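Q: What structure does this chain adopt?
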Amino acid sequence: MAFRSLNSIFAAVMTKTEQRIKQRFQKALVQYGLIDDGDRILVGLSGGKDSLCLLELLARRSKIHRPSFKVEALHVRMENIEYETDASYLQSFCNQLDIPLHIVSTRFDEKSAPGKEKPACFLCSWARRKQLFNMAQQLGCNKIALGHHQDDIIHTTLMNLCFEGQFATMPVKLQMEKMPLTIIRPLCLEQECDIIDFAALKGYKKQLKRCPNERRTSRTEAAQLFQQMERINPEARFSIWNALEKAGKLTSEPPLN
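A:
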């Protein structure tokens, strides 16, 4: 009897979490016009909880008749960073969703001109993004989907305010100016705590070895600042988000010629 009760509790928690995730996901697609009929979308699959959640949601949404769109995934392995993901797990995950997976390896040059040194995280991120751009165009994809959630976008806002002196963030929808690609962030309305619960309930497998450069950064400081803001005002998340929307910071269109 106790075993059945535990199963019932687990099912109830799973249902509520999954409903919340799906509702916010669908709202984001509609509110920001992220997907159109005929889209070919390449998902950046790092292997973390966010990208796994994004791929699953997009894959399941693509099975619905309208809008009709195709999804593929790209996992980029960095040769000169000592971290490890389970490629066989990612392949199995994609196979279950009937999504083609592409795996490429690359590296970045850590040497640069004196006075122009860039941190490893910046160089690694740019090298991955370059592979995404190249693969998307090779596959004929017109959109790239990234797994940034609402917390990521708000943290970026706080980083820009505190360290750059500007009110800016990662747009939910960004039309690239120099190539026929649009970057979308369909998890933009999802809260990280829900994605953590969703990943645990779904049994997503974690990376085998974390990146050695994952340490205390300005993003860590921004996350802690946001936590303090939410303690002061539990509605701080929505206040910041509304400010971003009113200022037009969540979507970015190229200038008209």
